[in-house]
Amino acid sequence: MALLTAAKVGHQFGGLCAVADFNLELHHGDLMAVIGPNGAGKTTVFNLITGVYRATEGSICFKGTELVGKNPNQIAALHIGRTFQNIRLFRDLSVLDNVRIAHHAQINYTPLEGLLHLGRYRREEQRIIDNSRLLLAIFKLEHLAGETAKNLPYGLQRRLEIARALAISPELLLLDEPAAGMNPNEIDQLMALIQWIRQEFKLTILLIEHQMKLVMGICERIKVLDFGVTLAEGPPKMIQNHPKVLEAYLGEIPDG
Amino acid sequence: MIALMREQWDLLLENRWLVPILLVIGFGLAFAIPEYNLLSVYVQLILMYAGINIILAVSLNLVNGYMGEFSLAHAGFMAVGAYTAVLLTMKVFPVAGFPFLFPCAVFAGGLAAALLGIIVAIPSFKVRGDYLAIITLAFLMIVKSLIENIDFIGGPRGISGIMKLTTLPWVFFWTVALVWMVRNFIYSKYGRGVLSIREDEIASDLMSVNTRHVKFFAFMLSSFCAGIAGALFAHLLQFISPRIFDITKSTDILIMVYLGGIASIGGSILGATLFTVLLELLRPSTMAALLSWLPSFVFEPLNEHFISHLGVWRMVIMPLALILVMLYWPRGIMGLREFRGFIPRRDREAHHYINPQGEEPDGATDRR
Ligand SMILES: Nc1ncnc2c1ncn2[C@@H]1O[C@H](COP(=O)(O)OP(=O)(O)O)[C@@H](O)[C@H]1O
Ligand SMILES: [Mg+2]
Prior knowledge:
The complex is a heterodimer. By secondary structure, chain A is α/β, with parallel strands linked by helices. Chain A has helices spanning 42-49, 72-77, 95-101, 111-116, 121-138, 154-166, 184-200, 212-218, 236-240, 243-250, and strands at residues 4-13, 16-26, 31-35, 57-62, 65-66, 80-82, 172-176, 204-208, 221-226, 229-234. By secondary structure, chain B is mostly helical. Chain B has 16 helices and two strands. The radius of gyration of chain B is 22 Å and the shape is globular. Chains A and B meet through helix 2, helix 3, helix 4 and helix 5 of A and helix 7, helix 8, helix 9 and helix 10 of B.
């Protein structure tokens, strides 16, 4: 059974049709990329899956649960994690708290226990601290646990965002342009990291990326969007030579 | 030498008996001071007002500082707590014979205010910022005009002849209990949720924070505290009227919060204390006494035109102070920082880096 199924999903902003007739099927363990020029509607697809916008048409099913109509926090609690194209960390909070906050739906105590620091409070807080520090250690951020997030250099902020997304123990991870602003060396590291977390956390990953090196290097399937419409979908080899894709990226191809 | 003293100081702060010992001493003093008249009645009164103001500032900081909203409704919640408790002690409970019923009346005042807190909490799901501030202002005005129009509770004349049931030990008890609860709330998943809403509400929602729950509980707790403070205030002043709980009162609490610094319990305690002292200095009699050393050709006109009208000048000075603090000192004394003593040990240790060799480099305590 598919992990995520999007069927005939469409979304309009006022009169502008940002996404139309979007279909997607992700299976457990997939690593797939969505590519396309700026304004193609890629980020909008992420926002529709995670509940930021409500799809005006179609349905999105995650493990048999309909996502359209649910709040973002309900969808996140179903273990769909994401990062953002423009980094959206909790800037004034510590690195550790950024990761701890994303555990919210997994912490089991009542407001009263929280108010009195009694009952399950201690056990749960310690569990979350341990797990958060483990995640920070994986991303080599542990020594920065007490640092304010906004003081981190750009590259580390991007890493922290992935760590935070992993804190909701996602089954499906959505990465919005994870390599943006990185140099080739950093992109290599990122590619290794993505493959490693995919193995380690048994993730299904859907990512948006402009860096062809990353897309062609690690993704098994690619979906191409342009003006909200799907141009093509298939393995990297096929996409590379697809005439419609070349046209969208390079402009009109002369006859012959 | 200084390093050694610092070390000793840190050791002292780490001692888990420090807080219990301080509390016992505090309680002992709170009982002993009125019993043996260790301080003048006037100073005792100021101490009690300071305690009530600390409750108000810490609880308003939860909404205005930690959550980053701007609520003007705090005086309204105070009024609800005050009127509820006063009606109970004057008309329902035989408090005169059974003074131990007083805390029940105070608690009921807090509950009533918390219930009305829902009225502000629910709009906060949809609107933020300026619009929510306007809703809180509307709430304050509705509460005030409702009270003015109910004859049963004295209408605009208010209620006088309230028994003086608020004592120093009670103020001490409620201040400690409520500050402790607000602090616990902040260092729980709900408090972190409140902080993340201030930072980026959509990201917070996407990171599985149930923003509605979090806002709901934060507003409830904040208004509960304001209700308790109102109840204590009423039984100290022995007179309440709708005019006491108007926008001026809310402005006062705002000054305490922004002076002390947003998102800081320690800051709010400092801010409330400073404000209480400042307010006493602005009384005509105190000011006259303080400035009496001036030569009489300076003092007399000053007294005639300024000092004797301080009651009116206060309405200008306090809002002006609020504007100045917000413009030129937006972080206040302790903005986004906290005294180590208020941060739970578990939280502090979690933020420290212990490298594999077991050495411990400096960890930051100024996190918020
Ligand atoms: N909140 C919004 N309101 C109105 N239009 C939007 C909004 N978000 C995105 N759009 C429009 O939808 C289209 C797709 O945007 P987006 O999904 O961000 O593209 P991409 O991520 O592929 O670069 C663009 O034309 C953009 O201007
Ligand atoms: Mg985008």
